[in-house]
Amino acid sequence: MMINSQNDPQQQGQPQTEPKSGQLSEEDANYRLKLMDQMWTSIRAGKNTTVDLAKPLRDEIVEEYRNDESPKIKNSQYLEDMTILCINMSLPTVQRTIDQMENFKSIETLIITGGKKSGAPVNLDDLLKRAAKYPLKQLYIVGFKSFVTQIPRQVSTFTNLNLLSFVGDQIAVLPPEMGNLSSLKVLYIDINPVTSVLPIVRNLHQLEKLGVGKTNIPQSELDIIKQTLPNCNILLK
Questions:
Q1: Cα 144 → chain centroid
Q2: Which tens digit of pLDDT belongs to each residue from 168-180?
């Protein structure tokens, strides 16, 4: 699934035209963003399914998007303007999206998800290498279970990140390079067997939110983090 956050303004009184091939309408883009919000909420809550939606909405999604999974985009303006990209590794057609990654120019939010309940295989080193030139501000790598056991060191090269999320994986240790992400304001590491984040977060002076629900981080370390970063809200749920 790919999401376009750029909306074409409609002149008042003018009939709405059909989007060009490869483009999303404003309604379509907003709808997909809403779905991603629901997916993220469900994953972080630790529910069994990636997306917890009512059945009528699930049926609507299936009907509307069953022929639109990882479409091959040829519209150059679409590739220039797109700011949000989702790589759902559970889709059978995901390679279409991966093959186009280096053609996108303005991706600020990259979502890489295992999609299914049990996660999905993924080569994060390859995906982040393809995304090396993105002006990333937010990076989500979520729902991979045992398929993701460590954070790629390439993450630290995205120096403009203000949000980083590894939720629902099997990460036990954070790489020291993460301490160089000086612009980071939000870090989610929930639902991972990580035992310590203090060596990393003590250097993240801009951090405002730290999600550590369902981890193995001891309360004694959380108390030290509260003293070290008094303006950081530690989220346990």
A1: 12
A2: 999 999 999 999 9
